Amino acid sequence: MKQLAEKHPAIIRWTHWINFPILFGMIYSGLMIYWAYPEFRIGWGNFTLFKLFPDWFNKSLGLEHHLAMGMAWHFFLAWIFAINGIAYVIYSIVSGEWRYLVPTWRNFGEAIQVALHDLHLIKKAPPQGRFNAAQRVTYTAIILMGLGSLLTGVAIYKPTEQSWLTTLLGGYRMARLEHFLLTMGFCAFFVVHIVQVIIAGWNNFRSMVTGYEITTQEEPHAERANV
Amino acid sequence: MPNEPMSSLPEQTPEEIARLEEERRRIAENNALVEREMARRSRRSFLVGGLATLGGLGVWEWIRTRPQDLGQPWPLRRVLDINEEFSRDLFTDRAKAPQFPLSAVRKPFRLNERIGMDDPLVPSEWKLVVDGYNTDEDEAHAELDMDAIHKMPRTEETVEFKCIEGWSQTAHWAGVKFADFAKQYPAPEGYDYVGMETPDAGYYVGLDLASAMHPQTLLAYELDGDALPEPHGAPLRLMIPTKYGIKNLKRIGRIFYSQERPRDYWAEQGYDWYAGL
């Protein structure tokens, strides 16, 4: 028998969906800022395997010569990003929603099993509640990464006013690298997240919009009836 | 409809079959109801989501198309100014840029731009013009040479210079604290801003007085132990580690006090006027 089950509270859904375009804007304006001094690369010694980022990347996204525009948007959207994220965390704590999300110690081991299951390498997935072990670990990491982006961002934005923070994070140049790596982490998460959402299907996606999902409860009598 | 029970199941009486059929009908009804309710909720949520998306795009489009204020749509310029107020009210007076040991200095100091330094420098002709400082005379005006600057108290600092582009470099500077300079050439009452320009006025910056009076703000004449090299703004440049490099004017030709924000070269190109770190 089908049932309508409440899954995601409204504040969780709103903060999630508000974060989506805001984080997109943060990354886009961040890339405009980064363009002005693109110091990072994948390589070792004098050998560069991949420049971060190649010219074709900057050109095709229209990132060139927009430092001032990037900064203006970045320091506007950052407020919304921070307030939205803090609202999510406060709500999660007050409502107790965090219990569905924050992983237990056992979840870390189970997360590997979930990943192997998703890759069709093992048959049986570990038991799960609202989120499976891999989701718990990943989503919690994403929240912590958001906090990390905020802190490394402040360390770069105000390295004098908040010099204690900049120093704590290893200095101005190190904070820049950390901020950059966290951004790359968000991009990697985004790709995996989209693939997983597509695989999980419509009922799951719809629950993040409406808050409800349809669950099926086994009815032993009817199943047996065969009429 | 086949009415034969499967061999593995026990015999079912007609009453039992009727009851199960009734139950099946009830489940089908319930399922249809659930699907209808879900469809109703979906319609509502996706409609709200769609409207919120349109609203968000509308806000973005509105900001983007507002009239420009110093190279930015005015709402973004307003946010930059709010960020400045937030910063000044909460932090500025207390904050000091970290000092580094001399071993942290990296040479040579990077050279970025020569804006405002197109004319060749003739050291003997250089002078520092000071306008609008506090005095009994109506039009306070002074012209100083480097000897006068060297006679003022000397201050040294090793700080990390930060370009707004993103690069940074630690260097050792020596010069006169602006605060010491201002003891001889103080700001008139109610003048909250300082302006500085190159001799040809090709490059100009505006500073709030509090930032100028910050104990780490130098009128610098030495870089890494040597007299300031020409490309780095000889004979006298601003070294203000609490601001991005764009405020660190080279080859200072004129300093003046102002009641309003003085014009600022890079702020006119869309950058934050305050540019505080």
Description of the structure:
The complex is a heterodimer of chains A (227) and B (277). Chain A has 227 residues and is mostly helical. Chain A has one domain (2-217): Fumarate Reductase Cytochrome B subunit. Chain A is built from ten helices and four strands; from the N terminus they run E-H-E-E-H-H-H-H-H-H-H-H-E-H. Chain A has helices spanning 10-35, 55-61, 67-95, 98-101, 105-118, 133-157, 163-168, 172-200, 202-210, 220-225; strands spanning 2-6, 41-44, 47-51, 212-216. In chain A, the strands form two sheets. In chain A, strands 1-4 form a two-stranded antiparallel ribbon. A two-stranded antiparallel ribbon of chain A has the order 2-3. In chain A, strand 2 (41-44) and strand 3 form a beta hairpin. By secondary structure, chain B is an alpha+beta fold. Chain B folds into two domains: 1-65, no CATH class; 71-269, Oxidoreductase, molybdopterin-binding domain (Sulfite Oxidase, Chain A, domain 2), CATH 3.90.420.10. Chain B has a five-stranded mixed beta sheet with strand order 4-3-12-7-8. In chain B, strands 5, 6, 9, 10 and 11 form a five-stranded antiparallel beta sheet that branches. A two-stranded antiparallel ribbon of chain B has the order 1-2. In chain B, a hairpin with a 2-residue loop joins strand 9 (218-223) and strand 10. The longest helix of chain B has 51 residues, at 14-64. Chain B is elongated. At the A-B interface, strand 1, helix 1, helix 3, helix 7 and helix 8 of A face helix 1 and helix 2 of B.
